[in-house]
Design brief:
237 residues; little secondary structure; two-stranded parallel sheet; elongated
């Protein structure tokens, strides 16, 4: 049975309420179940306020320090004016851990500073992202992204809006390591009996690129008269 139990008929709002100016508002300990359990149909199940320490503090040797469950809203909600709203610290496991079946496990939002700040100590990862089931481990970031340290990756590509249909289509390109912004397109073609070949380019090529450069390499035999008969026009082709 709970050591402390509080019920509310809806007129007050809190089943159990604790407030402290310098220490914990409510302390609950249990050997087998939750130290503090709260339930409400219309308000917070457990609410804690503090002038100097944690509003709600949970500690556990083998399970969650603080556990929240909700069918259609936020399971654990924290609010702060000048510090961390939810704060988690651990020596071995996850400081803050979120799981969701149909939506985001952890959501962070900020109007002035970082929505989510992560820091790795020693040899640990600041952030480890993994996609499972039919996800591909994609990380979606809206807005500029700045990386001040080295970036290691097995491959590189980027997806941009299609220049002729940006609302409905994308273009996928690979990285080009260069001090200049450039795209490289290459291929192999066999000249016909007249010693000519026509290279067909996609319709978006001229809208995406400019200041074209050409490099021709003859294979199998010298090509002293090999040249570009007609250059690419600047603009949509």
């Amino acid at each position: 049975m709970p050591s402390v139990r509080g019920d509310d008929d809806g007129t007050v709002g809190y089943g159990v309420f604790g407030r402290s100016d310098s220490n914990k508002g409510v302390v609950g300990e249990s050997d087998t179940g939750p130290g503090v359990a709260g339930y409400s149909n219309t308000n917070y199940g457990v609410s804690g306020e503090s002038g100097n320490g944690p509003g709600v503090y949970g500690s556990s040797d083998s399970r969650e320090g603080v556990f929240g469950r909700s069918d259609d809203n936020v399971a654990v909600f924290g609010e702060s004016n000048n510090s961390y709203a939810p704060y988690g610290r651990t020596n071995l496991g996850a400081g803050v851990y979120g799981v969701s079946i149909y939506d985001c496990g952890v959501v962070a939002s900020s109007s002035r500073t970082y929505a989510l700040w992560v820091s790795g100590i020693l040899s640990g990862y600041a952030a480890l992202l993994e996609g499972r089931v039919n996800m591909i481990g994609h990380v979606y970031m809206y807005g500029p992204v700045s990386i001040t340290g080295p970036l290691s990756k097995p491959g590189g590509s980027f997806k941009i809006d299609h220049p002729l249909d940006p609302a409905n289509k994308y273009l996928s390109h690979s990285f080009v390591e260069s001090p200049d912004m450039k795209n490289i397109y290459d291929g192999v073609v066999v000249l016909d009996d007249m010693g000519e070949a026509v290279i067909e380019l996609p319709d978006w090529f001229g809208a995406l690129n400019k200041d074209f450069r050409y490099q021709l390499t003859a294979i199998g035999a010298p090509g002293p008269n090999l040249y570009i008969a007609e250059e690419i026009s600047d603009g949509v082709i």
